Amino acid sequence: MTFVRFAVRRAAEMAVTLLAASFVVFGAMYLAPGSPASFLLTGRSASPEALAAINSQYHLDDPFAVRYFAWLGNVLQGDFGRSITYRTDVSRLLADRLPTTLLLITMALFVVVLVGLLLGRVAAVRGGRTDSAVLLATTFAVGTPAFVAAVLLQGLFAVRLGWFPSGGAGDGLVDMVWHLTLPAVALALYLIGMLARVTRSAMLDALGSEHVTVARSRGVPERQVIRRHVFRNSLGTVLTTGGLVVSTLLVCTILVETAFSVGGIGQLLELSTSTKDFPTVQAISLIVVALFMAVNLVVDLLLPLVDPRLTLGSRGSAG
Fold this sequence. Notes:
Layout lengths: L2 H29 L4 H6 L6 H10 L6 H13 L13 H37 L1 H15 L3 H15 L12 H35 L2 H8 L4 H18 L2 H19 L4 H10 L3 H29 L13
Helix pairs in contact: 1-13, 5-6, 5-8, 5-11, 6-8, 7-8, 7-11, 8-10, 8-11, 9-10, 10-13, 11-12, 11-13, 12-13
């Protein structure tokens, strides 16, 4: 399959998936109990006229199909509507908070890739006690939820030792990196364990392959065997977990941002869900779906470059 044909096919698939996701995202909020009007009234009783005015202002009394297609048309033009809670454009809210979340996810992803690959490689190559120690550490990491890791890290390194801030996002790039270090580690801990185990398993499989045996019999230096024939051949398997890694980061960001009061879109989503801020929840949910699909597309495009045995669109199967 040529690159152009693959790209066109995937673009069409993404468009259809996003359309279906938009319907689910838009309709899901209306199935939940409560309404934006109840939040705006803050528990006060209101006359039927006042309630009707609120519903009319936010088009809550329009038929579902009318609301959906009006919202979809605006989204296609880049207009996500107006936040019911913050009384401002959702696009402005996202523009203010999205950079913080993207920086947090980028830092966490960097930690996951660096530490996860290193631990997996060391465990597979050295074996013995080192392998057992890595397995024990990764078992602890995988068994620690992100919100538990956030509480533990915050209590030890922020409250007791005072090495890092206990919350907030900071001002300026350097200050933001300092503030987001603990949240990034809390976000990355589970995925470090998962990626290390995947890397270890893939490298152990590669170590037992025939071409590695042949390379060793020809006197190829062990370091070169590990680098060119073992680690490189295992990257295809590792890369296929990329979508799972990013999706986990996106989901767990909500918990970590709330614990550290980071003020990104994860915390915004949590607050908007509790206050029935339909436009904000719908916008963030749709963006998360789009990001997840984009990551999977990038993974599919990179796989043939990492492992020439694979073709475009084939995950884990030989081309």
